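User: Sequence recovery, please. Input:
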């Protein structure tokens, strides 16, 4: 095996190992938070803790929905709002339950916060990486793949590519524009009214695209 191939295989295995560790970390975090939150929900009173949890969860959901560019039009945006609301709501009984554990609860909060920070960092890096890969995506390959995506997924890809317009260099920008033409053609073919509304919402946020090409 050549050196470049060996390095590529090592990176691939490293990526798989990290992805597996992140997956395990998510389940561990969920189990710890839920396991601590269940007794915490009853420790502070049958009504007080759940009521505060609902208020905090709603505030987190509203804040996320206001900040997320894909909400409510994309599945990713809607998922982000649901996750933020659920996480905010769970944080209240979790903290109450951790306090009831005394010194062990402090260590539990520290470990949980550290794990949550690592997982959040991985999620943010994945978002940045997804946007950065758009400038290298080949339009020819994308043309063969768009038929496999749902309309909601196409809209999400359109929004991701729009965010990448501001970070792509000049050579990559040309490829990115061609990729967006492919997405636009497919969106216009499937749902012209929704596409027109999407273009109207994005007017002025980035460079205007040339009209979609006509193909027989």
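Assistant: Recovered sequence (216 residues):
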């Amino acid at each position: 095996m050549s050196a470049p191939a060996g390095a590529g295989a090592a990176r691939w295995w490293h990526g798989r190992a990290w992805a597996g560790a992140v997956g395990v970390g998510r389940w561990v975090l969920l189990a710890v938070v839920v396991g601590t939150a269940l007794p915490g929900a009853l420790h502070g009173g049958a009504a007080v803790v759940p009521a505060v949890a609902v208020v905090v969860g709603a505030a987190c959901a509203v804040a996320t929905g206001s900040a997320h560019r894909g909400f409510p039009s994309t599945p990713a945006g809607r998922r982000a709002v649901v996750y933020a609301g659920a996480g905010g709501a769970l944080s209240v009984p979790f903290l109450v339950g951790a306090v009831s554990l005394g010194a062990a609860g402090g260590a539990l909060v520290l470990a949980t916060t550290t794990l949550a920070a690592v997982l959040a960092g991985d999620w943010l890096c994945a978002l940045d990486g997804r946007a950065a890969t758009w400038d290298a995506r080949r339009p020819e390959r994308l043309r063969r793949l768009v038929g496999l995506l749902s309309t909601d997924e196409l809209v999400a890809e359109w929004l991701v590519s729009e965010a990448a317009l501001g970070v792509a260099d000049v050579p990559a920008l040309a490829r990115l524009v061609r990729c967006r033409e492919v997405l636009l053609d497919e969106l216009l073919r499937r749902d012209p009214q929704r596409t027109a509304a999407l273009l109207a919402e994005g007017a002025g946020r980035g460079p205007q695209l040339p009209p979609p090409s006509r193909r027989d």
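Residues 1-9, 131-136, 206-216 have pLDDT under 50 and may be disordered.
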